[in-house]
Amino acid sequence: MGRLNYTNRKSEGLKLGQVIAKDLLKRIRPGSGHKAALRDPYVEIDVSGRALTDEGLLETANALTTSAVFDDEHGKVVILEELGLKANQLTAGSLWALSKVVALAAHDLRDLDLSDNLISVGTTEETAAWEAFLESFSGCCVLRRIDFSGNPLGPRAFEVLARVYGKEDPVELLSISDIALNGDDLSGDFTSATGSSTILERPMRRMSIVSDDLTSDLEVSSNTAGHRRKFSRQDAQSPDKQMSTNAPEKPFPVYASTRGLRSVPYIVFGNTTMTEACALHLSYVLVCHNFPEQLVARVPPAKAGPPQHQLESYGITSGCKGMVYLPNDKLGTAGSRVLELAELARTEMLDDASQDEPDEEFKTPTKSPSALRKVSDVQSSPSFSATSGRRRSATSATGSEHGGRNASSGNASNELDRARSRIQGNILRDFGVSSVDLWRISLRMLTSSRAILLLAAEVIRHEHVKATEPRRLVHSPPPPQPARPAQLVQPVRPLFQTQPVDDAFPPLPSSAMRAGVAPLKHSKPTPLRAGNPNHPATPTGHLRRRKRSVNPNTHPSSFESLTSADTDTDTNTGAYSAPEAKFEQQPYRSRLPHGFSENVWMQIISHMAGADGIVNITQQRSILRWAMDRTTLSRGREALGKPEGAQIWRLLEGIGCLAYDVRARREG
């Protein structure tokens, strides 16, 4: 293990950063330390208390990035496991460079100490750097601790923490017994390229959540581990052993099963000038974070001595479990109360999850095609559901402590909601809606949606109501005409009456009538239309001519009468002759403005409001539905007599944008 300790150096700032960079770059071929780096590429860097500053850290980060990506046929030369940057006057501007280092060391970094620096998140640039830094932990799977204590982070830092934490997938704790029993199936997926798996030789802490017979197989004593470590170093002189030792490692299945900030057992926020606004955002994260006892078993154990004692002291000195937020003098009564209730809700939630785990008798066979079988697959089985239901009913019937705890869980959840509501109201009253990015952008998106879509939604609603009314296909008979008075004079009969020559040849019209008629044009005979086989075919030309004669500007009633006349029964044949239908597939066109669909408008408005990455899809859809619903206007008028903060709170509650969506379990 190459430990680079610079705590006793006299250099500071940029000069110290250049010294660290020189030491790291010497490990790259043809540097003087290349061969030694191949034998032991693991690096621990400690620069605590040396005033490295942002300039010096930039030099160090660039050298770490260059050396970490270097990989030749013999393996890597730098595998970063620990990075101590305590008390180095670092600001949020250095987080951009640090995020690249963390992302490259995602499978190897085990401890990161950024305590007692000057990291504060307030401006837009600082917020972007802090968010990118937190997102760089998404691939970390062996990280034991992140220490932010002693930094004046500010409320916006905790808001971004809740946002990034909510985007990560919930941790699904795999059954370690299944992984241990299926080790043969997993050896090929988590070994190095040369077939060795040196990470399996490292000592693993006793896993308390596994039965004793399984832990005995997984537990390795420190003496045996030390013997193996010495043996590997001695054998590293040969080229073959050298290549197998320095080949890039892949994490053991237990370690790779959890990733991101949710997988870190200890995240320290002590003395970060936390206010009740910080506590509000942290409460959503705290409820969903697993206990360190559950997560420590899934990361490599700390080295014996001060590092291990420091991790164990967090729960003793502060009383916090994993997410360490004490001491913080500016937390206040409301902030302390909401975090206490969040701890209680966290305990109840995780205890309920542990009760739902299957018993030994319901476990599926150990040798299965899927080596990473999850506990949820067993919980979904009918036998487990029935048995767990009987076990819960028996517990409640006997009046055990679990039954009383489940009965009080609803009260604790309600108290937590009320405590959060009070803090939210205080923030809106004292700092306004612009103090929280989620609130500000949600209201901006709601305002734009209502201005664009409310009128169109009202038109669509009226059209829908009109379309649902029954249509009259046949006109009602005309109103009765008033009766004419009886004629007193008899009609005069003509003197001469002539009989028509033949009914089939009517007389020609008069010359006056012929003057206004255009001469007839000879047309081709109309084709016969295939109709009912029981009736003779009839020409369809008269139907086409009748349809052409319809004026589109004619009143709809006259158009319907013509249409109904076209569909009448033929008096000559007695057959039903429908008009010739001409079907054309028309493209879909929404009735919203410009014919855009609701999803398209949601993307346009969210991009215009800057909601991407802040307001999730569910909240965006809720905002659009709220904006297009006219009944929400009346609900808003009901709150006009209340203070402005209360009105905004009710509006944010209605659209579901009071807090980020942080879930403890995966849905579905």
TrEMBL record:
Residues 350-360 have a biased composition (Acidic residues). Residues 234-247, 550-575 have a biased composition (Polar residues). It comes from the Eukaryota. Residues 220-254, 350-416, 521-582 are annotated as: Disordered. This is Uncharacterized protein. It comes from Lasallia pustulata.
